[in-house]
């Protein structure tokens, strides 16, 4: 299994509304992207300085499944939106044995 984790820091303008829209769009990928086995989208409530605004944890059967997700048209629509509302993001990909 491949685990793909992304952390997002959203821009301040319309932050809450953009986070809600991004969460909905991300959750809608389940069932739309065949290689996506699971997705968990979390909106942060921590007020720590080091905290990020949102996280996604996705699971795939293989690296090829993750690669197919990365270029899937429905995923790319979400990426296009997120690029307009996020300051930056961080990613971790690993194989779960």
What does this structure look like?
The protein is of the alpha+beta class. It has one domain (2-95): Alpha-Beta Plaits, CATH 3.30.70.100. The protein has helices at 15-27, 63-71, 73-85; strands at 2-10, 36-43, 54-60, 86-95. Strands 2-3-1-4 form a 4-stranded antiparallel beta sheet. Helix 1 packs antiparallel against helix 3 (73-85). It starts with a strand and ends with a strand. The model has no long low-confidence stretch (mean pLDDT 97).
Short description:
This protein has three helices and four strands; from the N terminus they run βαββααβ. The chain has 97 residues and is of the alpha+beta class.
Shape designation = globular
CATH topology: Alpha-Beta Plaits
> Can you summarize the main beta sheet?
4 strands, antiparallel
CATH class identity: Alpha Beta
Mean pLDDT: 97
Write down the Rg. 13 Å
SSE order in H/E notation?
EHEEHHE
Strand order of the largest sheet: 2-3-1-4
CATH architectural name: 2-Layer Sandwich
Strand content: 35-45%
Question: What key phrases describe this protein's structure?
Answer:
4 strands, 3 helices, Alpha-Beta Plaits, 97 residues, 4-stranded antiparallel β-sheet, alpha+beta, globular
Which SSEs are present, and which pair or pack?
Elements lengths: L1 E9 L4 H13 L8 E8 L10 E7 L2 H9 L1 H13 E10 L2
Antiparallel strand pairs: 1-3, 1-4, 2-3
Helix pairs in contact: 1-3
């Amino acid at each position: 299994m491949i685990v793909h984790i992304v952390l997002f820091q959203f821009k301040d303008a319309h932050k809450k509304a953009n986070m809600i829209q991004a969460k909905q769009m991300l959750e809608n990928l389940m069932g739309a992207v065949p290689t996506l086995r699971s997705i968990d989208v979390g909106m942060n409530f921590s007020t720590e300085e080091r905290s990020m605004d949102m996280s996604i944890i996705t699971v795939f059967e293989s690296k090829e499944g993750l690669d197919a997700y990365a270029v899937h048209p429905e995923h790319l629509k979400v990426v296009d939106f997120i690029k307009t509302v996020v300051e930056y993001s961080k990613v971790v990909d690993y194989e779960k044995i």
